[in-house]
Each structure stands twice: as C-alpha cells, then as structure tokens.
Amino acid sequence: xxxxxxxxxxxxxxxxxxxxxxxxxxxxxxxxxxxxxxxxxxxxxxxxxxxxxxxxxxxxxxxxxxxxxxxxxxxxxxxxxxxxxxxxxxxxxxxxxx
Amino acid sequence: xxxxxxxxxxxxxxxxxxxxxxxxxxxxxxxxxxxxxxxxxxxxxxxxxxxxxxxxxxxxxxxxxxxxxxxxxxxxxxxxxxxxxxxxxxxxxxxxxxxxxxxxxxxxxxxxxxxxxxxxxxxxxxxxxxxxxxxxxxxxxxxxxxxxxxxxxxxxxxxxxxxxxxxxxxxxxxxxxxxxxxxxxxxxxxxxxxxxxxxxxxxxxxxxxxxxxxxxxxxxxxxxxxxxxxxxxxxxxxxxxxxxxxxxxxxxxxxxxxxxxxxxxxxxxxxxxxxxxxxxxxxxxxxxxxxxxxxxxxxxxxxxxxxxxxxxxxxxxxxxxxxxxxxxxxxxxxxxxxxxxxxxxxxxxxxxxxxxxxxxxxxxxxxxxxxxxxxxxxxxxxxxxxxxxxxxxxxxxxxxxxxxxxxxxxxxxxxxxxxxxxxxxxxxxxxxxxxxxxxxxxxxxxxxxxxxxxxxxxxxxxxxxxxxxxxxxxxxxxxxxxxxxxxxxxxxxxxxxxxxxxxxx
Lengths: 98, 505
Fold this sequence. Notes:
The complex is a heterodimer.
Chain A: E1 8-14, H1 19-35, E2 40-46, H2 53-56, E3 64-69, E4 74-77, H3 83-90
Parallel strand pairs in A: 1-2
Antiparallel strand pairs in A: 1-3, 3-4
Chain B: E1 6-7, H1 14-17, E2 22-23, E3 27-32, H2 38-52, E4 57-61, H3 66-74, H4 80-85, E5 89-93, E6 101-103, H5 110-123, E7 127-131, H6 135-139, H7 143-159, E8 163-169, E9 187-196, E10 199-209, E11 218-224, E12 227-230, E13 246-247, H8 252-257, E14 263-264, E15 268-273, H9 279-292, E16 297-301, H10 306-314, H11 321-325, E17 329-333, H12 341-355, E18 359-363, H13 374-390, E19 394-400, H14 406-413, E20 418-427, E21 430-440, E22 450-455, E23 458-463, E24 465-467, E25 470-472, H15 474-504
Parallel strand pairs in B: 3-8, 3-9, 4-5, 4-7, 7-8, 15-19, 15-20, 16-17, 16-18, 18-19
Antiparallel strand pairs in B: 1-2, 9-10, 10-11, 11-12, 13-14, 20-21, 21-22, 22-23, 24-25
Helix pairs in contact in B: 12-13
C-alpha cells in the first residue's frame, strides 16, 4: 500500500492563544497521533505575529486547518471538535475501522 | 455642538447630494440589485481618494479576483496596478470556496480582521471597501457566528477610524439580502437600475444619513468612460448671479419687440410653435448673431443633421458654414432615442464644459419627450436651465406644440425668462405666421402680434394690419395696405392739388 509513503503537511492558523485555538490544536494532535502516526507534520501559524500569511492561504476564519499535502488543498474551520467531520474533511481513513 | 465630519468621495455630484461626502470614520452601506453600479461606486471612492485626496484605500473583494477587478475598471481609466505599486491602494481578494471548506465547532472571523488590519496598516489606509461581504453567508453555514462577527467587524471599522463603504445585494423587500442595514446605520445609499420604455436609467437615493442633512430625492446618475456622475439639482437654491447685459436675438425687428435690445445675457429663452412655423430659423439666426459677435455657440440638433440645417438656412440667407469653419459654431446632433435622458443631460454638460460656449441652442427640446415621461423631461429641463444659468450661458430652447406636448411648453415656460410664441394664422386660403412675446421677465416688451416673414433674405417681422375688420395678415394685409396707400396717395394728391389750385386761382 502506498499509504506508507504518504506525508501529511498540515497547517493550523490561529490568532494568539485563544481557547478555541488551543482546543483545535489539542484535537488535531490527538487525531493525527491516532490515525497518521509518524506520517504528519503540523505547522502552527500565529497570524498575530505573521499577519501577511493570511492572504496566501485565503484565511478569514480562525482557527483554520489547511491540508497542504496531499493535494488538493482542503480547509477545515472551527475548533475541530467533531472528529468524524475532521477526518472526512481531511480525507483520512480512520485506522480503527481498517 | 459639533456637527458630523465628512469625507469627500470625489465622485462628481455625489458630494453635493450628501452635502459634503460620506460620514468620516464610519461605514456606509451601498446597496442595490445586480448591475446597479455598487462595485464601481466603491472602487471610484477608493481611486478618487487615493488620487485626489491622498487618502490610501483598501479594497477587499469577496466577488472578483484582484486582476479581474483591475481589468474591469481599466476601461474607466483607473489604473489600479499603478496605485498598488505606489502604495496608494491595496487589493485583497477573499476567496470563499464552499467546496474546499468544512466547518466543525466554534470559530470566529479573526483571520479576516487580521487581513484587513494588515492591509490598512501597510499603506496607512483611510478608506476601506468591503465588496460584497454578504458572500460570506454563502460560504459559511453558521449564521449565528457570522452575524455576531459582522457586528464586531463594523464596530471594529469604526474604532479603526476608517471611512468605509460596504456593499450589499438588494434583497426581497429588504435593503440587503442578509439584513446588513441592521449593522451599518450611519449612512445608507440605494442604487437602482431600471428600464423605462427600453431606455435604461440609473438612480440613487440616500436612504438615511445619521446626523446630516441630505437630498432625499432619487437622483439620476450615469456610468460612462469617466466613471460615475450624479446629477443633483443643486441650483434649486436660486442664488445665481444675473446679468443686465443684453444681446441681440439675431433679428433686428425682433430685438425691437424686446425693448429694442434683445435678450438678457445668460437668460433662457423658449421659442415654441406648431410645426413649420420657423422655430429652427429663429434659433439659427440667434446662433448666427452670437457667432457674429465672435462668441461661441453650441447648437444641439435633435431633429436635423448639421448638414441639413446648414443647407436649409442657406435658403433663407444665412451662412452658418463659415461659423462652423471658424470654430465659433459647433453642432451636436443625435437622435433622442439613442440614450436615456440622463445620458443626454450628461453629454450636454460635458460638451458645454469642453467647448465653453456663451450660448447654447437646443432644437427642438420637445423631441426628448419620446425618451422620457413628461415629468422626467421637465425635471431634466429644469436641471439643464439651472446648469446653463449657473454657467452664465444664454440658452435657447425650441419646443414643438402639438396635442401631446402642449403641456411641456407650459411647464417649461415657467422656468424660462422669455417665451416667444409663433403661431399659424389661416385665413383667405393662406397660411401665415404670427409671432408674439408671451413673456419676457425684467424688461419692457411689445404686446403686439407681428406677422413673421421668412424670405430668401432672412427673417423679418412686420406689423399686422389692425383695422375695423380685424387683424389682417399675408395678402389680405398687403391688399389692405395697397388700398390704403392708394387712398393716401389720392388724399395726398388731393391735398397737394388743393393748394395748387389755390395758387392758380
């Protein structure tokens, strides 16, 4: 299976350490550890520090998770509290059901 | 008490009807249906701000890509790329693609705020446009969050002290589809584009303007190669300067009827009459008189082509061609049905501003009725007369009287300073013309009816015969005059003869 070679580059856009951002990051880490262990990188971008990056990825809501790789780009906005929606949104096949 | 501070939009006419511009440091809502010119108004606000008032602006679009927008407004002579390069403008396209976005849980629009703030701060923007922020509603499903965030956004804009325009699509029975008017309450403008008799007319109205007077009418506006022009009826104040100088009508005997000196300079004159009574000829002679004084005259021909007019006037002894060649006379002819009334008015304004004539002739103004309703034509004429008066231009309008347009010259006549009426008199198998002055403000004028002659040598007015048998014109007058002449001669001879006899005696 080609799954082993797949690398997942995820970017999480936040604006400061708000409760929503913290929740989103915690949730994201949890899902990745469960379903994509060793296959992912998470880059957290704080727009309060780097506001110029918001335009490039078309960010308007916070927090926004962007799947850069594999293509095509997918976006999930919100605190990622619904695991199923996040997995569907990112197109990740859950490990447990395999 | 401190009154509200305003920011000039730089859009021609809009600053007049808002009495100085949009509320400074506050958001203004501009709404209207598709294709009504919202985006254009917004972009012109930004461009004029950057070019005329040195106020940089941010244009955040939710609809068009920045490149598309730049291409669309390039036809109006707005060079967005140059402004961007000079840090006078910042374009930001917020793309909301429903297909690649998933929502889960709580979020806010801080990303948008950060983008906007970054854009504003990077060029020191004083003006902001959000076009059309309602597109967020199509991209995001959580309306509760969205509404709370919009409220926060408009408050944030106020705190940021930027003058903003927010555009919104007109909804069914509401000003905007998603009720933006609930959040933006300082100034609301409604644009409208409607088709009447297959001719398009654009209008705008200030729905509300908190803390300020404003015009409440619907004002026609126009979009052409120079952007938006709004036509306010500014000079309703009636505080214009007036001249006491007089200019010739072009016909010596007509001058005599106007106290011997002709019209007031800068006044407006209406020449009305039924078909074929010589209105155009009077107008042409008036134009000729202006050119003879080495003054410029603009002749707006709505019925005949310039060549036709020149040819026809030659037959009554008038050479207009030489004035055209010397550049004193300019013809502008177009079919009234070509554009709506506003377009006509606007193009007239432009011609006048460009050519700078001392006098303008519109022949015949009644043809405009074919493109507009009577009330609209009257409103347009009022603005036309006002405009000419404020520019100090003598204006001559000709009007055709017939069943349907009878009211027009009655209405127009109250606006003009002088009114000449030419009429047909039919008697003894002849049709003759009679001319009289219905009114002429501020000067003594003749109350007599004159016979109006158009000959190969030109125009002339002769006194009609008034006798016990009534008013005689044409050949009846000539016959009567001959009769009288013969009678007088006879009398004269008798008189001469009598003393002669005496001498002989």
